[in-house]
Design brief:
alpha+beta, single chain, 5-stranded antiparallel beta sheet, 4-stranded antiparallel beta sheet
Length: about 450
């Protein structure tokens, strides 16, 4: 009798486990059986890089309402969609980012520009202006618009330039000719913080997000100062080459602070060693006016006088993501939303613009198969990022003609300065003129 061998396969190994699932496939993973696998993978990586640039449409919406330039933006802690904006016309608007509409409108909140905004505990909004007043507003949700009147008014002696609220306590700090601490329940400042030899105008002040007793400020005399509200005095102060326009504390590293400078660069400092920055970020071609960290602490956004918004990776000082539009003017304020998916910018043309943090990201519901395909394409781009063609396509960014020409001119000037210093060293006595690292040139003096 002849024995017949029969191949038997379990149907469960060849059929989807659930309706809608992909059909299981079996593959021989022996590399000798797939001689063209690497070539196919490179083609897929190239297509993935091209698709990313094709679908890079970051601009979502422009929210109107202000009749003058926007000076300041702030987001409400603990929410994903509430953002307030203050303008040079003295008005304050509260926006719902998710619904892309105005929630509150406060006309003539201040005489002159609104120079600072921050949310207090609950549904309160603190604003300060050049009219020497700080006002507390109620911005709780309402069904209909009513005429807004401030809940409380704090009067100062000089124009205010910035305001920031403590993370947990009912106190806030303001910047004018000095840094002052205020209690929401009292009408006068409870503490004045100043460096003994300082005479500058303080332009911005921020509480540390982790060490909430630490306060940082920047001034018109190119200084960056650290305060401790427990001792009630300034602890350390550094003077830089050029003045800073904005500062932001890292949400994940308590010792890391970001400064936006007038010299077109951004700097990150470790406050334990202020003699030199940990990283210099170079790409703007004009003064950097604002900066803000992503809640993840892995990236940050900046806006500049060159009418561009740029998103940087922390620790990577070149080639940021660049956003621009034809009608957007000089960017004065930029912030991340609390879910790190969107960026909000305010500019001189009076519009609040909403951008995607990842230009090619698809919004809406994504199925499991789509998510798997997206992750596969991302891994391909990461694996082949050093390939010449893939890298060239991934790095390509369109810039406005004026910005592109300014970048070329700046590059020429920097190269000329480098050649000049090199020739000067070449024609001086050996050891007399030593090259100095870029990071060592930033800080001029340090006081404690």
């Amino acid at each position: 009798m002849v024995k017949i061998s029969v191949l038997q396969h379990a149907p469960s190994a060849h059929l989807p486990t659930r309706p809608g699932d992909p059909t299981p496939t079996s593959r021989n993973l022996d590399p000798l059986m797939h001689p063209f696998a690497r070539a196919r993978e490179r083609t897929r990586a190239l297509n993935a890089a091209k698709m990313e640039r094709m679908f890079a449409k970051p601009f979502l919406r422009a929210l109107e309402g202000h009749i003058d330039a926007i000076e300041v933006l702030c987001r409400k802690p603990g929410t994903l969609n509430t953002v307030a904006s203050g303008s040079w016309d003295g008005g304050i608007l509260v926006h719902d980012i998710a619904q892309q509409k105005q929630v509150h409108r406060i006309l003539d909140a201040h005489k002159g520009k609104v120079s600072g905004l921050c949310f207090s505990q609950g549904d309160g909004l603190l604003s300060c202006g050049v009219d020497t007043n700080i006002k507390l507003w109620d911005v709780s949700p309402r069904d209909e618009e009513v005429e807004q009147k401030p809940l409380h008014i704090f009067s100062g002696k000089s124009p205010f330039h910035s305001i920031d609220h403590h993370r947990s306590d009912a106190i806030f700090a303001t910047a004018s000719n000095i840094v002052q601490l205020w209690d929401e329940t009292k009408t006068a400042a409870i503490s004045n913080l100043t460096f003994p030899t300082a005479t500058e105008t303080v332009t911005s002040v921020r509480f540390n997000l982790s060490e909430t007793s630490v306060l940082g400020s920047i001034g018109s005399d190119r200084s960056f100062t650290l305060y401790d509200i427990r001792s009630g005095k300034a602890e350390r102060r550094v003077t830089m080459q050029m003045r800073n326009n904005a500062l932001a504390w890292s949400p994940t590293l308590p010792t890391l602070v970001l400064l936006a400078s007038e010299d077109h660069n951004l700097y990150t400092f470790d406050v334990r060693k202020l003699s030199s920055p940990t990283q210099i970020y170079k790409a703007h071609v004009s003064a950097v006016m604002s900066c803000d960290w992503s809640p993840t602490g892995l990236e940050f956004v900046s806006g500049g006088w060159d009418r561009t918004v740029r998103i940087w990776k922390e620790g990577k000082g070149t080639r940021p993501e660049v956003y621009h539009t034809k009608r957007m003017q000089r960017v004065s304020s930029t912030i991340f939303t609390a879910d790190a998916r969107f960026v909000v910018s305010g500019s001189d043309d009076g519009n609040v613009r909403i951008w995607k943090a990842k230009a090619h990201e698809r919004l809406g519901i994504i199925t499991a198969r789509e998510r798997a395909a997206i992750e596969y394409r991302e891994s391909l781009k990461e694996r082949w990022r050093y390939d010449q063609e893939v890298g060239r396509i991934s790095r390509a960014r369109h810039l406005p003609k004026a910005v592109h020409q300014a970048a070329k001119l700046k590059e020429t000037m920097v190269e000329a300065q480098r050649v000049k210093e090199e020739r000067r060293r070449k024609h001086t006595r050996a050891g007399e003129s030593k090259p100095k690292a870029e990071r060592k040139k930033v800080v001029l003096a340090e006081q404690s």
